[in-house]
Amino acid sequence: AQSVTQLDSQVPVFEEAPVELRCNYSSSVSVYLFWYVQYPNQGLQLLLKYLSGSTLVESINGFEAEFNKSQTSFHLRKPSVHISDTAEYFCAVSEPGGYQKVTFGTGTKLQVIP
Amino acid sequence: DVKVTQSSRYLVKRTGEKVFLECVQDMDHENMFWYRQDPGLGLRLIYFSYDVKMKEKGDIPEGYSVSREKKERFSLILESASTNQTSMYLCASSRQGPSTDTQYFGPGTRLTVL
Question: CA-CA distance, B68 to A88, in Å (whole number)?
C-alpha cells in the first residue's frame, strides 16, 4: 500500500528566504507524485506533479520539486518565499491504473514571516 | 476553469440528525471524491464515484453513505451525525483515466456536530 510522510507540520520562514518542505513516500510500484496547496479558507489546488521523464518539475509561481527514487523523496523547494506563499502544502502519491486512489500526506503549514 | 461548488461553507447539526452535503462540478468529470480533513491527519478518502450510480469505499467509509444520481452531483450523507464527525469535508472531481489526472477541489464544508 502506498503512503506519504510529511515530517514537518509547520515551517516558519522569513520573507525572501529559501524553503524546503519535505515529503517521503512508500510504494511497491512506480508512482505519480503531487504537491497541492491550500490557501486559507480555500480548497486544495494542484501546485505541480511528477508523472515521468525529468525528475525536476516546476510550478508557475517559482516552486520546484525533485523526484528522487533512491531516497523515495519528492521535496518541495523555493529559493525565495513571499508572504503570499503562506498556506498549507500537501504531498500526495498515486499508483498507475485503478480509479485514481490518491493518498495525501498530513500537510505542512508554511508561515512566511515579514 | 473547473468549478467545484459545495452547498454550504459552514454547517452546525445536532447529534443524531441526518446530514446531507452536496457537491456539484461543472466540467463533465467522471470521477468525484469526498474527503474529510482533520488537523494532523491530512485528507482521508471517505468515498469516491467513477460514474453515475457507481461508488467505491475509501479509507474511512464507516458512518457515511453517498449518492450520485447525476454526473455533476455527488452527495455525502451522514445517516445519524455524531460528534466525531465534526470536521472539514472536501469534495473533488477529476477526469476519467489513469492516476495522473489533477483533482479539482471545492472550498470545503466545515461541519460541527453538537
Answer: 30
- The answer to whether the Cβ–Cβ distance between B45 and A98 falls below 8 Å is no
Per-residue model confidence as pLDDT tens for chain A (114 residues): 788 999 999 999 999 999 999 999 998 778 889 999 999 888 899 999 998 888 899 998 899 999 998 999 999 999 999 999 999 999 999 877 666 678 899 999 999 999
Residues 51-90 of B with CB under 8 A from A: 56, 90
Nearest to A48 by CA among A24, A87, A76, A78: A76
Q: What is the sign of the dihedral through the CA atoms of B83, A37, A75 and B96?
A: positive
Residue B17 and residue B114 in contact, taking contact as beta carbons nearer than 8 Å: no
Q: Of B90, B98, B103, which has the smallest distance from its Cβ to A97's Cβ?
A: B98
Task: Give the tens place of pLDDT for each residue, B64-80.
Answer: 999 999 999 999 999 99
Q: From the CB of residue B105, how many other CB atoms can be counted at a distance below 10 Å?
A: 24
Closest CA to B32 of B19, B18, B45: B45
